[in-house]
Amino acid sequence: MSWVHELGGGDIPAFTSDDFEDEILLDVANAALDIVSTKRPTFSRANVQAEVFRQLQVVRFSEPAERILTATRATKLAVTQAVLITTPKPAPHATLPATK
Fold first, then answer.
1. Which of 31, 41, 73, 85 would suit a FRET pair with 63, their CA atoms being 20 to 30 Å apart?
2. By residue range, what is the domain housing residue 58?
3. What angle do CA 47, 56, 22 make, to 5 degrees?
4. Where is 53: in which H helix or E strand?
5. Is 53 exposed, middle or buried (CB count within 10 Å of its CB: 0-12, 13-18, 19+)?
6. Rounded to an integer, what distance in angstroms lies between the CA atom of residue 82 and that of residue 23?
7. Count of domains in the chain?
8. For the chain, what is the radius of gyration of the CA atoms?
9. Is 65 part of any domain?
């Protein structure tokens, strides 16, 4: 196991979600959205989130929860830019206005 210590990974910084401003995450979101939309004409949030995680795999985070939080933020930014092809379903308690 002595070869592990020779890798010198101790001086690589570990990040938290707070270290990333929205402008930086927007770049990650745009890259993920470009890749996903190139691969498939229609895609889901899960497809975008998977690509966001692939984009962030080279970043070292202080905790796994920080990686998830950062990916969730970037995914939300990406999805808000995508065009919906189906309308969202109304909440179960929502009622439609009466028509005359």
1. 31
2. 12-81
3. 90
4. helix 45-56
5. middle
6. 17
7. 1
8. 19
9. yes
Tokens 């969730």 found at: 72
- List pLDDT tens digits, range 16-68: 999 999 999 999 999 999 999 999 989 999 999 999 999 999 999 999 999 99
Q: Is residue 64 part of a domain?
A: yes
Tokens in use for 81? 């830019």
Q: Which helix (H) or strand (E) holds 75?
A: helix 64-81
Residue 92, token pair as written in the block? 């179960």
pLDDT of residue 3: 46
pTM score of the predicted model: 0.74
Pick from 66, 25, 19: which is nearest to 48 by CA? 25
89 within some domain = no
Res 97 pLDDT > 50: yes
Task: Please indicate, yes or no, if residue 88 is contained in any of the structural domains.
Answer: no
